[in-house]
Design goal:
It is a single chain. By secondary structure, this protein is an alpha+beta fold. The protein has 2 domains: 1-63; 78-137, no CATH class. Helices cover 28% and strands 27% of the residues. It is built from 4 helices and 10 strands. The chain has helices at 2-6, 23-36, 65-76, 84-91; strands at 11-13, 39-43, 46-52, 59-61, 81-82, 102-104, 115-116, 119-120, 122-126, 132-136. Strands 1, 2, 3 and 4 form a 4-stranded antiparallel sheet that branches. It has a 4-stranded mixed sheet with strand order 5-6-9-10. This is DUF6088 family protein. It comes from Paraburkholderia phenoliruptrix.
Length: 137
Amino acid sequence: MRSIRQRKGVVVLRSALSTLASRSQRTRVLDTLVHGGQLVRVGHGLCAKTRTNRFTGTLTPAAPFESIAAEAFRKLGIDVGPGTLARDYDSGVSMQIPMVAVVTTGRRRITRRIQVGTKRVEHERANKGHAMTRTCR
């Protein structure tokens, strides 16, 4: 737990802890920490740190969902950008606030699921000569 606490950022990769133990031992320890509430599972081999909510006293993720997802993709080496709906809202083309977290992966196909609780990231891809299409729900 001390090694996890001292790491920068909120997201912890199981592979980043490779110097501490074998893969199966790391998985067991991370599962124990998830069930104990010290970590939240984000995806396969990905966990996020938690902190105590000062209003409710419960353990919650230590960062907002969007920043956890962005950090997870960055640590995995996957380049993503905002989805079509978010770009339209940011540029003023649309007045509708996007309610679902959608990221653009360019032409790269990604099947990795990033999820915290019920919030989940959806992916959209740019096809050759076509508009963005959603690929993962």
